[in-house]
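Researcher: Quick test of sequence recovery. Tokens follow.
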């Protein structure tokens, strides 16, 4: 997608974040989340849920809580 005119949607990023979580690549999940925001896509409850799930699958509960609080701060 990066080499084509097709722009990824929030759903695409959610799938990517979830996949990184399953692959134990939490940093890549966060990079995808940041890239999503840089592309001016607004994270929704599902996207945040995928990121929280990735944190939990990788045993990082503190990071999951931070994502949760950021989500609440953003009004999601």
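Model:
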């Amino acid at each position: 997608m990066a080499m084509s005119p097709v722009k990824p949607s929030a759903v695409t990023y959610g799938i990517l974040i979830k996949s990184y979580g399953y692959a134990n690549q939490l940093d890549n999940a966060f990079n995808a989340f940041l890239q999503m925001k840089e592309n001016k896509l607004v994270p929704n409850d599902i996207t945040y849920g995928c990121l929280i799930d990735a944190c939990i699958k990788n045993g990082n509960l503190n990071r999951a809580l931070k994502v949760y609080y950021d989500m609440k701060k953003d009004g999601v």
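The first helix runs from residue 10 to 22.
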